[in-house]
Amino acid sequence: MFSYLGVLISVVMGLALTHVLRGLSKLIQTRGSVRIYWVHVVWSINIVLYVLGLWWGMYGWNKLQVWTTELFLFLTLYAIVVFVMASLLFPAEFHDDMDFEDYFYRNRGWFFGLLTTALVFDIPETLLKESMHLRDVPKQYMYFLPSVLGMSLMAAWSSSRLVQGVLCVAWAFAILLYMNFSALEHMVGP
Question: Which residues have a Cβ under 8 Å from the Cβ of 126 and sit 6 or more positions away?
Fold first, then answer.
Protein backbone atom coordinates (compact mmCIF):
# COMPACT_ATOMS: atom_id res chain seq x y z
CA MET A 1 0.00 0.00 0.00
CA PHE A 2 2.82 2.44 0.79
CA SER A 3 4.12 2.38 -2.77
CA TYR A 4 0.68 3.43 -3.95
CA LEU A 5 0.40 6.25 -1.38
CA GLY A 6 4.08 7.12 -1.82
CA VAL A 7 3.48 7.89 -5.50
CA LEU A 8 0.63 10.25 -4.64
CA ILE A 9 2.65 12.01 -1.93
CA SER A 10 5.66 12.22 -4.25
CA VAL A 11 3.59 13.77 -7.01
CA VAL A 12 2.04 16.38 -4.70
CA MET A 13 5.38 17.19 -3.02
CA GLY A 14 7.05 17.22 -6.45
CA LEU A 15 4.49 19.74 -7.67
CA ALA A 16 5.20 21.93 -4.63
CA LEU A 17 8.94 21.79 -5.34
CA THR A 18 8.40 22.38 -9.04
CA HIS A 19 6.29 25.46 -8.40
CA VAL A 20 8.82 27.04 -6.01
CA LEU A 21 11.86 26.14 -8.12
CA ARG A 22 10.15 27.39 -11.28
CA GLY A 23 9.35 30.64 -9.45
CA LEU A 24 12.96 31.07 -8.32
CA SER A 25 14.16 30.37 -11.85
CA LYS A 26 11.74 32.93 -13.27
CA LEU A 27 12.97 35.47 -10.71
CA ILE A 28 16.47 35.05 -12.09
CA GLN A 29 15.25 35.26 -15.68
CA THR A 30 13.15 38.38 -15.09
CA ARG A 31 15.42 40.10 -12.56
CA GLY A 32 15.65 43.21 -14.72
CA SER A 33 11.91 43.78 -14.86
CA VAL A 34 10.61 42.56 -11.48
CA ARG A 35 11.38 43.78 -7.99
CA ILE A 36 12.94 40.91 -6.03
CA TYR A 37 12.54 40.83 -2.24
CA TRP A 38 15.23 38.96 -0.35
CA VAL A 39 12.89 37.81 2.45
CA HIS A 40 10.66 36.19 -0.17
CA VAL A 41 13.66 34.44 -1.72
CA VAL A 42 14.83 33.12 1.66
CA TRP A 43 11.32 31.81 2.45
CA SER A 44 11.28 30.12 -0.95
CA ILE A 45 14.55 28.35 -0.12
CA ASN A 46 13.22 27.48 3.36
CA ILE A 47 10.18 25.84 1.81
CA VAL A 48 12.32 23.86 -0.65
CA LEU A 49 14.26 22.50 2.35
CA TYR A 50 11.08 21.87 4.33
CA VAL A 51 9.41 19.97 1.48
CA LEU A 52 12.53 17.88 0.86
CA GLY A 53 12.82 17.01 4.57
CA LEU A 54 9.12 16.24 4.84
CA TRP A 55 9.18 14.06 1.75
CA TRP A 56 12.21 12.20 3.10
CA GLY A 57 10.54 11.71 6.46
CA MET A 58 7.37 10.32 4.84
CA TYR A 59 9.41 7.31 3.78
CA GLY A 60 9.06 6.02 7.33
CA TRP A 61 5.54 4.94 6.43
CA ASN A 62 6.92 2.24 4.11
CA LYS A 63 7.06 -0.22 7.03
CA LEU A 64 3.35 0.04 7.84
CA GLN A 65 1.54 -3.13 6.80
CA VAL A 66 -2.11 -2.24 7.51
CA TRP A 67 -3.52 1.04 6.22
CA THR A 68 -6.77 2.80 7.07
CA THR A 69 -8.77 5.21 4.96
CA GLU A 70 -8.35 7.84 7.69
CA LEU A 71 -4.56 7.60 7.64
CA PHE A 72 -4.52 7.69 3.84
CA LEU A 73 -6.72 10.81 3.81
CA PHE A 74 -4.72 12.46 6.62
CA LEU A 75 -1.37 12.03 4.83
CA THR A 76 -2.88 13.11 1.51
CA LEU A 77 -4.41 16.23 3.10
CA TYR A 78 -1.06 17.01 4.73
CA ALA A 79 0.65 16.88 1.33
CA ILE A 80 -2.08 19.05 -0.21
CA VAL A 81 -1.69 21.71 2.51
CA VAL A 82 2.06 21.78 1.83
CA PHE A 83 1.45 22.15 -1.91
CA VAL A 84 -1.03 25.01 -1.51
CA MET A 85 1.31 26.74 0.95
CA ALA A 86 4.24 26.43 -1.47
CA SER A 87 2.12 27.63 -4.38
CA LEU A 88 1.42 30.91 -2.56
CA LEU A 89 5.07 31.94 -2.87
CA PHE A 90 4.80 32.65 -6.60
CA PRO A 91 1.95 33.51 -8.94
CA ALA A 92 1.40 31.30 -11.98
CA GLU A 93 2.66 34.14 -14.20
CA PHE A 94 4.78 37.21 -13.45
CA HIS A 95 3.95 40.55 -14.98
CA ASP A 96 6.81 42.80 -16.07
CA ASP A 97 6.76 45.21 -13.14
CA MET A 98 5.91 42.69 -10.42
CA ASP A 99 6.90 43.74 -6.90
CA PHE A 100 7.62 40.63 -4.83
CA GLU A 101 7.79 42.55 -1.58
CA ASP A 102 4.20 43.66 -2.10
CA TYR A 103 3.23 40.16 -3.29
CA PHE A 104 4.80 38.57 -0.20
CA TYR A 105 2.99 40.86 2.25
CA ARG A 106 -0.36 40.51 0.48
CA ASN A 107 -0.12 36.70 0.76
CA ARG A 108 1.64 36.62 4.15
CA GLY A 109 -1.40 35.66 6.21
CA TRP A 110 -2.39 32.78 3.96
CA PHE A 111 1.18 31.57 3.46
CA PHE A 112 2.06 31.50 7.15
CA GLY A 113 -1.39 30.24 8.10
CA LEU A 114 -0.89 27.23 5.82
CA LEU A 115 2.72 26.78 6.97
CA THR A 116 1.46 26.74 10.57
CA THR A 117 -1.23 24.23 9.57
CA ALA A 118 1.39 22.01 7.93
CA LEU A 119 3.56 22.15 11.04
CA VAL A 120 0.56 21.24 13.21
CA PHE A 121 -0.15 18.29 10.86
CA ASP A 122 3.44 17.20 11.42
CA ILE A 123 2.84 16.56 15.13
CA PRO A 124 0.36 13.66 14.80
CA GLU A 125 2.16 12.40 11.68
CA THR A 126 5.44 12.13 13.58
CA LEU A 127 3.88 10.74 16.77
CA LEU A 128 1.89 8.16 14.80
CA LYS A 129 5.06 6.86 13.19
CA GLU A 130 6.61 6.46 16.63
CA SER A 131 3.53 4.84 18.20
CA MET A 132 3.38 2.36 15.31
CA HIS A 133 7.10 1.59 15.80
CA LEU A 134 7.95 2.86 12.31
CA ARG A 135 10.48 5.47 13.42
CA ASP A 136 11.65 7.03 16.64
CA VAL A 137 11.05 10.73 17.02
CA PRO A 138 14.44 12.48 16.82
CA LYS A 139 15.16 14.15 20.16
CA GLN A 140 15.86 17.41 18.28
CA TYR A 141 12.23 17.43 17.11
CA MET A 142 11.11 18.58 20.56
CA TYR A 143 13.12 21.79 20.06
CA PHE A 144 12.72 22.22 16.32
CA LEU A 145 8.97 22.01 15.95
CA PRO A 146 7.97 24.47 18.70
CA SER A 147 10.65 26.88 17.44
CA VAL A 148 9.53 26.91 13.81
CA LEU A 149 5.88 26.84 14.80
CA GLY A 150 6.41 29.92 16.96
CA MET A 151 8.31 31.67 14.18
CA SER A 152 5.56 30.86 11.69
CA LEU A 153 2.91 32.28 14.01
CA MET A 154 4.94 35.44 14.60
CA ALA A 155 5.48 35.84 10.85
CA ALA A 156 1.74 35.45 10.23
CA TRP A 157 0.95 38.33 12.58
CA SER A 158 3.82 40.70 11.95
CA SER A 159 4.02 43.07 9.00
CA SER A 160 7.33 44.49 10.23
CA ARG A 161 10.04 44.21 7.57
CA LEU A 162 12.66 43.79 10.30
CA VAL A 163 10.75 40.99 12.06
CA GLN A 164 10.14 39.22 8.74
CA GLY A 165 13.83 39.44 7.87
CA VAL A 166 14.94 38.04 11.23
CA LEU A 167 12.34 35.25 11.14
CA CYS A 168 13.18 34.02 7.63
CA VAL A 169 16.89 33.76 8.52
CA ALA A 170 16.13 32.16 11.91
CA TRP A 171 13.81 29.64 10.23
CA ALA A 172 16.55 28.78 7.70
CA PHE A 173 19.03 28.32 10.54
CA ALA A 174 16.57 26.13 12.48
CA ILE A 175 15.74 23.83 9.58
CA LEU A 176 19.39 23.43 8.58
CA LEU A 177 20.35 22.61 12.18
CA TYR A 178 17.49 20.15 12.51
CA MET A 179 18.34 18.41 9.24
CA ASN A 180 21.98 18.21 10.24
CA PHE A 181 21.60 17.16 13.88
CA SER A 182 18.64 14.84 13.46
CA ALA A 183 20.80 12.92 10.99
CA LEU A 184 18.43 12.99 8.04
CA GLU A 185 19.81 9.70 6.78
CA HIS A 186 18.71 8.02 10.04
CA MET A 187 15.23 9.52 10.09
CA VAL A 188 13.92 6.71 7.89
CA GLY A 189 15.57 4.03 9.99
CA PRO A 190 18.23 1.45 9.19
Answer: 57, 137, 141, 145
